[in-house]
Structures
1.
Amino acid sequence: MYRLVLYVLIGLIGVATILAVLQLRPFSPLALLASTAFLIIICAASNAILARVFNVPANVESSYITALILALIIDPAQTPAAFGFLGWAAILAMSSKYVLSLYNKHFFNPAAIAVVITAFVLGDSASWWVGTANMLPFVLIGGFLVAHKLRQVDMVVIFCAAALVSTCIITVMDGQAILTGLDHLFVGSPLFFFAFIMLTEPLTEPPTKNLRRLYGVLTGFLFVPQIHVGSIFSTPELALCIGNIFAYLVSPKHKVMLKLSQKIKMAPEIVDFVFKPTQELAYIPGQYMEFTLAHPHPDSRGNRRYFTLASSPTEKSVHLGVRFYEQSSSYKNAMYNMNGKTPFIAAQIAGDFTLPRNPNQKLVFIAGGIGITPFRSMLKYLIDTQQRRDIILFYINRTTDEIVYQNVLHAAQKKLGIKIIYALTNTTAIPYNWSGLVGRINEEVIKGIVPDYQERMYYLSGPPEMVRANEKILKNMNVKGDQIKKDFFPGLV
């Protein structure tokens, strides 16, 4: 996810540079490129120094992202004083991540809080020059890619709808033409850049879908500049910071250091990492966290990943089931070789892929490969709390060697009566005594094993193509969309 955001921002800087060359922007291309380079250097240097001072891993790609956002919302510098303003904005943005935080979790979007502070303290504010008609098509294309990757299109739509309603109400109250207000909102403001790039930042948004929708409504209402308290008028950055406060209040607060206890090779390419946390974690089975792993020479994918927790809140240890490939990222290589002394930081508990509150709701779990991890978390929780639920689990792998967490699965069958159906898709490697399914799950298989299939909720977890294929099957069976939940966490695993 971070790499995609970085590429989109670089692309927008490139487009703006071309427009400046064509004299379609009120600044020179040299000023834009010089300002961007200056911001990148100051942000990266400040981030590295602060990370060393606070003794935490430096997230290099996040400093680049913040620098590029600042370059797109603050006018390019053309005087020494303007470069001074850029420098202060960069330093404040990076400092906010370390200073304006509690329990090692920062409150605000770094770029937003930086320009809020500079506006009140230095009297200089962001112009949000990216919000213009000639930048709009490129913002929409790149922004949609980001929101789609994060599966936050619904929050963006809700935010825009709230901003639209707020604009219409205030425009009518002021006796102005609604079409003029709408043209300014959708074409002449940074609405879409703000929504797609800044509002969707995972670290400063709420952890669940419903809370994210409230977050979108709140920030959308406050986005309109006519809203004010006394002489203080709303700005995009102020609206986002107020939204960030709401997100912080409703989100888990802690960052936790994890110490590796065991590495268990469960399959040729799958390892179960067992960690001892420095403090007890409170989460719901099926949720995910962001994990930061400092390592030398990180590649462009950076040093952060999202993993679904395979452990249950009833366990003292944290389990992560991770698949490795021959051509792994620098992060994966460092993770594979980590030991008990390797710093590993967990933060941002989030996700809606959790058991329904109604214990009588019938369920079907469909797991593909390492997609078994959230179900391991749920089943272990149900075993430990002695909760019986009507669950049928389809567990799909290529070969029997890839079947993992068998101890928990067997316990769920024995103690809770969970029905587990194993399936192998590599038809050339089926053991002679195999009693499970052969081939991919299809409509006939589900109907045969789950006669009451229309009464159940379905949980899908695994490779994206497997999840999409099974979702299509279920919809062809007239299973409603609100009966289907898909495991998702942003970023590159």
Note: The chain has three domains: 2-249, 256-350, 363-486.
2.
Amino acid sequence: MMTKLFTIAAISFTFLFNAQTTELKSTVLPVIIASELSEISFSTLVVDKKEMAYDSKDLFEFEFTNTGEFPLIISNVQTSCGCTQLTNNYSTPIAPGQISKLAFSYATTRVGEFSKSITVTSNGSLEPLLLTIKGIVLPAPIMTEPVSIIK
């Protein structure tokens, strides 16, 4: 009886160990070669629009500079939800010294206060950078019917 329990435990452990090993092997991490590491400098990491009109088309813009010696390549831009969208292309490498920007829109049909994060991955930093957009979307204006006075 004890041998059977030991055998079952050993088999279970083997399956569990192999499952974890397989999971680790399938994870692919980006590799940045130190000699190709550039440098990215944002003018601000937070854009606060304060109060925004309902259904406005205002953009949140983050200006940045390649302060490194190599072309800056932005490999990924990830927003925290579907209500925030990147509005420009980031696939072109940015030359050393060049200034560029990332622009985002927010679904301003969602009334109230918001704060959304954006993760930017590039060869300008070993860790992804976190940008934040925030503000308050005001309620839609109330439309009133014209009043006519007939006597």
Note: Residues 36-137 form a domain with the Immunoglobulin-like fold (CATH 2.60.40.10).
